[in-house]
Amino acid sequence: MKKKFLKSFLACSLLFFFSHSTYGWGFWGHKKINHMACFTLPPGMVGFYKSHIDFITDHAVDPDNRRYSNKAEPPRHYLDADHYGDHPFDSLPKFWKDAVAKYSEDTLNAYGINPWYITKMMFSLTESFKDKDVDKILYYSANIGHYIADGHVPLHCTENYNGQMTGQVGIHAFWESRIPELSGDHYDFLVGRCMYIPKVQLYTWTFIEASFAALDSVFRFEKELGRTFPPDKKFSFEQVGNKTQKVYSADYAKAYEDMLSGMVERRLRASVFDVGSLWYTAWVNAGSPDLDSIGRNDLSDEMKKKLEEEEKASHAGEVKEIHGH
Ligand SMILES: [Zn+2]
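The joint structure predicted for all components is written out below.
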C-alpha cells in the first residue's frame, strides 16, 4: 500500500515537473523581463508604457497559456537549430520566404520558427504604432516581449530541449525557471537605455546564435556537477499550493549557477535590453508617433472580452498533455 502511494506520489510530482518544462523563462522571468524593458525606453515612449506597465507585465505569459489551445502556437517559442546540422547558421536562411523555399513550411514549423516569427510580429507592432491603436500596441508589445525572451534561452535552440537525449531530463525548467526563481531577486535588471536596431531580420538571429553557442556549457556543466554532487542532495520537495513538487535543490542550483558564471543573469539582462530595443525600433519605424495623446486610454471593451475568452480557452486546455518545449 505504502509502495503504491509512493509510486503515484512520484508519478504526480514528476508529471508536474515535466509539464512545467513547457514554459519559457517561467512566469516570474517573463513578467520581470517585460516589466523591466519598460524602463529602457526613451522619453517619447516611457510614459505610455509606464501607464500600462501592469498589462505589459501580466500579459507577458499569454503566449505560453495559448500553447494549450492553439496548435500554431508552440513552434513560435523555439528553434531547434541543431536539427539543421552542427553549423546551422551557415545554412539556415534568415528570411522567412527563403527558408520556406529551402525547407518547406511544414519542416520549419516542426522544428520551430522563433526568429522569423519575431520579425513578423515586428511588422504588426509597427503598424499598431502607425495607427496609434492602444489595443494592438499593448497586445503586440506584451506578446513580442515573450517571444524575444524565449529566443534568449539556450534550451529553446535544441532538439535536446529537456536533456532527454543526454540523461539530463528536467534541465529545461531547472535552467530557465528554477534558477531565476531562486536567484532572480539578486540579479541586476537595470540595463540602461535601449537602442535602435537597423536590421531587425538579421538582429533576431544574433540572440538565437548566442543562445545556441551557450548550449555546450549548459549541458556539460550540469553533467559534470551531476557526477560529483552528493546524489541525495540533488533534489528536494517543495509544497506549491496543494501539490508536492520535486525540484532541484537550492544547493545544487547554486553550484550549477557558479559553474555557469552568471549565464542565466546575462541572458535575462540581454532579454530586457532586446525587448526594449525592438519595441523602440518599431516605434521609430512607425515615424515616432506621439503616444502622450493616447497614453491614458484604456483597452477597448472588445479587447478585454477577447483576452478574457483567450484566458478561458487556455484554462480549458490545461488538462491536455503538451509535448515539445
Ligand atoms: Zn514561451
